[in-house]
Amino acid sequence: MSVFDYPLLLEPIPVPRPWGGGRVCRLYDREGEAPAEPSRRAPAEPIGEWWDVSTWPTDPGNPGLATVTKIANGPLRGTPLDRVADVPVVVKLLDSAEKLSVQAHPVSADVHKDEMWYILHAEPGAYLFCGLADGVDPAEFCKRIRSDNPRELEVLAMLRRADDVKPGMRFNVPTGTVHAVGPGLVAFEISERTQVTYRLFDYNRGRALHLDDGCRAVTAARPDLPPLEHGLAIEGADEVEALTGFPTFCVLKIRGKRITLRSARHMHLVTAAGGDCGITGAGAEWTVALKHASTCLVPPTSKPYAIESAGDVLISPLRDPG
Questions:
Q1: CATH for the stretch 10-219
Q2: Structural domain boundaries of the chain?
Q3: Which end of the chain is flanked by fewer CB atoms within 10 Å, N or C?
Q4: How many angstroms separate the CA atoms of 314 and 308, rounded?
């Protein structure tokens, strides 16, 4: 399903999290407040996620919070995105003031969640974990987290740690990969649409864990599916770098003051990763101003359109779910 013919700006949805950093409004000139919190949860939690592109219905951590983004420009303004496009991914900005739990996503033919993080902002000394450390067997890791009161240092020692994380770095997180975001980061996250996450270790903070499902995911074989071919025609770029290639989506980082694109094969996302950018093409609705750290959805088109930017731009073609 795809019934739009111009780039769609979308209204980001701010989502409170106990670990939230609340920095995105200040860093990227966004306006927004947390949804009204029930009195039993006052005071309100800081914003930890901004759901920028989503057709997923509700936030798993707060089922009362709707998470289908609405279109913010052109003739379709105010329309929920799921009425005009079947988007197979969710795009978020993660904003962490504290370390997140150690997690993994499911691995099965029907439920899986490949994702990628692109770092937009990092405080000095920021770190994260992505994958098991060299030589660590998944079964041994699961044995450790299943033990009584596992010690934090022992669990984290089994993970691959990235230190001194900087803006512009990217991390691929195939489904089933053990991972944990550390404090002091703002990251662009693109993932498959399912929002199923298994919490494996939570620093003994008392929240529920999902050890049976999580260990099945960690030890399972990843589905053997071919990566998506982007199908883009790109002109005028100074540099094109493939950041990731998963079956459902791929991500390219493109640099150039004025880039011309065509994509008759896939709808795709354009993310202003390095500063504000502008899009122009055929028709008035193709003139779009995209703020730094924001993402728009572009339809498949055989006609060229241009992106002007002083910084890096991420282009993410998406597989048609149909």
A1: 2.60.120.10
A2: 10-219, 233-317
A3: C
A4: 13
Helices (H) then strands (E): counts for the chain: 4, 25
Phi, psi angle pair for 174, to nearest 5°: -60, 150
Give the count of alpha carbons within 13 A of 110, CB side only: 0
User: In terms of Cα–Cα distance, which of 49, 53, 59 is closest to 88?
Assistant: 53
Question: Over the stretch 249-286, which tens digit does the pLDDT of each residue have?
Answer: 999 999 999 999 998 899 999 999 999 999 999 889 99
Residue 106 structure tokens: 């499911």
Q: What is the pLDDT of residues 65-116, one digit of tens each?
A: 999 999 999 999 999 999 999 999 999 999 999 999 999 999 998 899 999 9
Bridge partners (DSSP) of residue 173 are 115
Helix axes 211-219, 138-146, angle to 10 degrees: 170
Q: Which CATH number is correct for 233-317, 2.60.120.10, 2.40.37.20, 2.102.10.10, 3.40.190.10? A: 2.60.120.10
What is the distance between the alpha carbons of residues 213 and 192, in angstroms, rounded to a whole number? 19
